[in-house]
């Protein structure tokens, strides 16, 4: 890619469906400017201690980067430094000119709204443009709607799919299952990737009747924030 405008874009993502939205925004800007795109995530834990849900999102982001010639995925794990310091270091290392951050209410990035990260980045990398994007929340658990996601699999069963928590030779899709609270049955949402697209399908009593992407705002109780 010919970087006609000498621009480099850095998208900072945290776990949840909002990461994909931020990446798409960064990709739009990168394509418009014919600039390289970097996708960064930061975690205080070592990679081998991350849970299944986090690993799933990381795999998604890696796949996106691998499918786009101008994109590169960067993970900074086992990080004890402030988020702003890590972002600034990556920005300097890759000559970043524009940084895209997500503003959410329930993540480490909530510090952004308080100005601390912004002030630090303005001080540490003063000649970088900052884009603060309002994004929808991930599955809300403050009202006890869904349990924490766990790795799960779909197995083909006639015209339907059966949810399983064990991988075997008949596994068709691998993803994350978010179970509804206060139920003894496997009811909830199964999130997985198909053809580089993230899908969320309904699970009823351990069965997926169709691979139809559900309306996130209703089925997952997301906020109504839009681009």
From TrEMBL:
<protein>
    <recommendedName>
        <fullName>UspA domain-containing protein</fullName>
    </recommendedName>
</protein>
<dbReference type="InterPro" id="IPR006016">
    <property type="entry name" value="UspA"/>
</dbReference>
<dbReference type="InterPro" id="IPR014729">
    <property type="entry name" value="Rossmann-like_a/b/a_fold"/>
</dbReference>
<dbReference type="Pfam" id="PF00582">
    <property type="entry name" value="Usp"/>
</dbReference>
<feature type="domain" description="UspA">
    <location>
        <begin position="8"/>
        <end position="126"/>
    </location>
</feature>
<dbReference type="InterPro" id="IPR052023">
    <property type="entry name" value="Histidine_kinase_KdpD"/>
</dbReference>
């Amino acid at each position: 890619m010919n970087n006609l405008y000498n621009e480099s874009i850095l998208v900072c993502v945290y776990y949840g469906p909002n990461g994909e939205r931020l990446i798409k925004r960064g990709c739009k800007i990168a394509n418009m400017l014919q600039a390289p795109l970097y996708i960064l995530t930061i975690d205080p834990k070592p990679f081998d201690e991350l849970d299944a849900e986090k690993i799933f999102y990381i795999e998604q982001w890696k796949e996106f980067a691998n499918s786009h010639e101008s994109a590169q995925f960067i993970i900074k794990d086992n990080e004890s430094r402030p988020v702003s310091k890590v972002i600034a270091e990556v920005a300097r290392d890759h000559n970043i000119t524009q940084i895209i951050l997500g503003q959410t209410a329930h993540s480490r990035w909530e510090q952004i709204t308080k100005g601390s990260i912004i002030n630090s980045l303005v001080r540490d990398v003063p000649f970088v443009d900052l884009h603060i994007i309002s994004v929808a929340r991930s599955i809300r658990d403050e009202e006890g709607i869904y349990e924490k996601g766990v790795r799960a699999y779909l197995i083909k069963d006639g015209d339907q799919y059966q949810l399983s928590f064990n991988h075997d030779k008949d596994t068709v899709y691998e993803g994350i299952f978010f179970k509804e609270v206060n139920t003894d049955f496997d009811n909830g949402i199964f999130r997985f990737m198909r053809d580089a697209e993230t899908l969320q399908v309904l699970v009823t009593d351990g069965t997926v009747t169709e691979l139809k992407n559900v309306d996130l705002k209703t089925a997952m109780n997301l906020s109504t924030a839009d681009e």
